[in-house]
Structure prediction request, 606 residues.
Amino acid sequence: MSVVPFVKSLLQVRDLVVSLDDGTSIVEDIAFSVAPGEILGVVGESGSGKSSIATALLGDARAGAVISGGSVFVEGRDLLSLDEPGRRQMRGPVISHVAQDPALALNPMRRIGSLLEEVLRVHQPGLSQGERRQRIAEAAADVGLPADAAFLRRFPHQLSGGQQQRVLLALAVVLRPRLIVLDEPTTALDVSTQAKVLATVRDLCRTREIGAVYVSHDLAVVRELVDRVVVLYAGRIVESGSREQVFEAPTHPYTRGLLDAVPDISGRHVLRAISGHAPALQDRGEGCAFAPRCDLRSASCKARPPLRDFGDRRLAACHHPVRGNREDVTANVRTPAAAPETRSDTGAERKERRMLAILEEVTASYGANQVLADVNLSLREGYCTALVGESGSGKTTFARSLVGAVEDVDGVFFYDGRPLDLAGNRDKDLRRRIQYIFQNPFRALNPRQTVGQILRTAALHFFPIRSADADKEVAEVLRRVALAPELAQRYPRDLSGGERQRVAIARALICKPQLLICDEITSALDVSVQAAIIDLLRSLQRESGLTILFVTHDLGVVRAVSDYVAVLRQGRIVEQGLTGHVLDEPQHDYTRALVADSPRLRDSAA
Prediction:
């Protein structure tokens, strides 16, 4: 039986179990509560069961899964004991849902006003037309959207990503629910838009006494938003407590591992990826599921640890709980890393390093829409330069212009001392030297080829070598990205997200490039996997002197990976310099706003 501390609850989850049709548990013994106006964060790696719990709170389960046990009480009514018509009556007016991807959740053929009005007509048919208009205006105001006729007549594709996410929030609150379940609602948003959405959620919960369950793998965002935290691992709760308890002095080794893997804009520190992988559903076993990855494991971990109450509503499931401040306990491994401006080379040596790529007055357009205007940026050999800015600032357009993937682009481009036409065709050798790594490796890798075939094809395309030599190259490059050579026989669908991203990096490396362009390659990864990828990129720089252009909107990642940073706004660079200087002492108002809006794990530099 799970432990649930008593509080005046709006939501009370007891012994929830979600299973596959064959009985294999996805999540089990899930228990927590949410008070009116309280925000609960649910965190954990991919596969931990976060989304399964979020769906179960609505009385539903994804295809191939069933809710096989437990209770979900909302305002005293057990949602799971109701029949389907009864559950539908609860969804919307009592408990609502905000999805991760508004592009999938919003009907592209319907206008915004029509979507909001339909929700009211279906759930509250007794409202008059005037009352519906008033409720729509109130919902729009609640989430910071205009309610004028011109805006409400827009289609989803005519809105920015942040506006689309706010529309989803408006659809969730227009019925004035008591509880909102938010499933990764800010994952794809830039920091400024994300900050506005988070502020909207926070204000709604406080002013309307709405309870919220916020599901996310972004711990910095969770720290900024929530009141309490539930940490999941392998389908079970391993720790829960207040925000301060979990983030300042976590008890479970897994929670500490997650926090040690998070890059933070407040200051550069050593990132420690959690070794190994979370077990598959069929491999969870009877003992502590985290034991194979835990430095504190012992014989006692062969038995499953109970979820124990440590007082003050703090719970943890561990045979070796660690007490004390996280920074003190991990001081031996969290020594500050060298800041970007104090790398091992001296200032004189840095000046001697040549500029591998020089771009001047780069201008690009899509039809009548100008995306870049007179952008000047130089990439120093062997260094990582981050290109940051909010969505629509032109980051990806600039990055793709380097590989000749933008047609309507002008400017001066010198690469390795050689003048080039940005819009012109690239010869084979130049295409080999400049490699692009995309954000979504699953879409970038051929699903019909094995990993070995994908890598071998790239090697044979650029180098006239024998097939046997290509196989050796494949094995070697897999080792370079910390993948077992045996993975060459597997398909992309058989790999985890982090493994697929490593294969994408390996495909670039097997071409022996000078310049890697990384386009948001860590944005969708778990924090531990992200830490491993960041460490991989830094080690590749040290070993082979790679030059990297790292496109991102995450300033915490910028702090961890880059030596220089350029800030792009509305197609123009407004500030650039050493990463430490730009993030610690930003000069431009826009940069200051980005830094202020970035979530952080610490209130000041570590």
Remarks:
- The chain has 23 helices and 22 strands.
- The first helix runs from residue 50 to 56.
